[in-house]
User: Which sequence fits this backbone?
């Protein structure tokens, strides 16, 4: 008999787990002793704050991040032998969404391991909810190209399709490139294209605003290195 893979949400920022993680998730954490995590240090701190303080040293951790090879991911399937349940924790938010943990989830399906998703905060869905943009048709595009000209070309294509399909486009960026991405959005997009900036969602200093590109140009905010989700809707 094989164990199950529990997809365990984590806070998007420095929130106390009890403030943003459902009580049902927190209450089941003590039943899991084996975790696959993006970063062990962060996971230890989260689980300690989530009620396992004093017991974290007894847990078994395995890392799965952008440096993990396919062979190393495959080897993780041994963890489910003898009916052992495993928890998957990402750095922030929901596991396997814009997250390397998706590799393990895919393998679990292939090997007949039950996957159990747990409710928790998603920066993408929270940003969409708060944006006022089209929630009936939307697409998450992940990261755009890092090089300026390639990124601007991608933005032109994204805006064109958004306008034609009336579809909200959602994307993210490495925090230190937030402001350069916003500059490119405002330099490329039409004045009437709606742009939502959703930074530090769920945190006390959360910034979520939707304006047209033309309106943003009159007062361009500084996002800095805060985690941020960008959404656009062309007209």
Assistant:
């Amino acid at each position: 008999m094989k164990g199950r893979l529990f997809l365990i949400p984590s806070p998007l920022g420095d929130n106390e787990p009890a403030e943003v993680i459902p009580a049902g998730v927190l209450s089941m954490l003590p039943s899991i002793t084996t975790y696959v995590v993006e970063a062990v240090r962060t996971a230890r701190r989260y689980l300690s704050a989530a009620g396992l303080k004093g017991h974290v040293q007894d847990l078994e951790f395995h890392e799965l991040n952008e440096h993990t090879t396919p062979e190393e991911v495959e080897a993780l399937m041994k963890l489910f032998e003898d009916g052992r349940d495993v928890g998957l924790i990402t750095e922030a938010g929901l596991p396997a969404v814009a997250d390397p943990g998706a590799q393990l989830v895919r393998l679990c399906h292939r090997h007949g391991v039950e996957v159990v998703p747990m409710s928790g905060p998603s920066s993408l869905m929270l940003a969409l909810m708060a944006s006022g943009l089209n929630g009936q048709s939307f697409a998450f595009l992940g990261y755009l190209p890092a090089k300026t000209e390639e990124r601007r070309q991608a933005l032109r294509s994204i805006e064109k399709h958004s306008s034609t399909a009336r579809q909200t486009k959602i994307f993210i960026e490495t925090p230190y490139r937030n402001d350069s991405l916003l500059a490119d959005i405002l330099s490329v997009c039409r004045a009437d294209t709606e742009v939502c900036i959703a930074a530090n969602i769920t945190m006390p200093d959360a910034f979520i605003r939707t304006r047209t590109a033309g309106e943003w140009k009159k007062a361009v905010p500084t996002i800095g290195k805060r985690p941020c989700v960008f959404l656009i809707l062309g007209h």
